[in-house]
Amino acid sequence: MTILTTVADAEQQASSFSNFIKGLTWEKALPALIVLVVSLILIKVLTSLFDKAIGRSKIEKTLHPLLHTVFKALLTTIALLIVTGTLGLDVSVLVAILSVISLAISLAVQGTLSNVVGGLVILTSHPFRVGDYIDLAGTAGTVQRIGLTYTDLRTPGNQDVHVPNSQVSGSTVTNFTAAGTRRMELTISASYDDAVEAVKAALLESCQVPGVLEAPAPEAHLSGYGDSAISYILRAWAPVDVYWEVYYAVLENVKAVFDARGITMTYPHVNVHMQQ
Predict the structure, then answer these.
(1) Shortest CA distance to 87 belongs to which of 6, 170, 31?
(2) 207 φ, ψ (degrees, to nearest 5)
(3) Is residue 266 one of the residues assigned to a domain?
(4) The CATH number of the domain where 166 resides is what?
(5) Is the pTM of this model over 0.85?
(6) What distance in Å separates the CA atoms of residue 183 and residue 247, rounded to the nearest whole number?
(7) Spatial separation of the C-alpha atoms in residues 77 and 71, rounded to whole Å
(8) Residues 93-109 as b or e (16 or more Cβ within 10 Å = b)
(9) How many Cβ atoms are within 10 Å of 39's Cβ, its own excluded?
(10) I need a surface site. Which of 38, 152, 203, 276 has the fewest CB within 10 A?
(11) What pLDDT, on a 0 to 100 scale, did the predictor assign at position 186?
(12) Do 222 and 254 have their domain in common?
């Protein structure tokens, strides 16, 4: 009902505007033209100063184009209202027309606006930055770009994923890069015949590869008793930029150390005992 009323008002105002155009003379138009030219010059100068100001600020650079557009649109709207008033036209005519146009645009781009709002939330709250490795609702990858409507991820398989910002701002984000270090956790099994302390010592020895941090120190623990083997947990820390290289180096070193110490890395099996 409100929309219909607004449209009816706009049609009435548009009719008044048409009648005003018919009675427009040079005496009315010339002052308004001068005001328009001066307004355009001021818009250009003020926009340039605004761009320099936000360029020196700490505002996220991705927001600069949006702020530029909003500021210029605001100045343009003010200039139109001033010119309309100079012409002697009721300003409510322009306001009514602009309200209908803005309503139509907002309904047409509702999904895009929700993405823009999500982008603003991301750029102001900084849950992650370009270059961070994140997990976003089950999709993991390195952030390539944070736009106003989409966030671009590149997966370890070199696939580019474009996620709408409305989903990003409403999802749980796991940032693996923000802390600077990352913990690896390996589950290793060993035979019941091997001493627990010997296995734990071998696991800690396998962490003696370049990249493993001394603090926090690596740790090994018995984590469970299986049907055919004892399970152990090995935890170690590494810088995020070399995490995967260190992860695979430690994983390979576990087998080498076990072989050197004579520790059996078992696989599922069943022991059958025969009685005479």
Answers:
(1) 31
(2) -85, 0
(3) no
(4) 2.30.30.60
(5) no
(6) 9
(7) 10
(8) bbebbeebeeeeeeeee
(9) 18
(10) 276
(11) 93
(12) yes
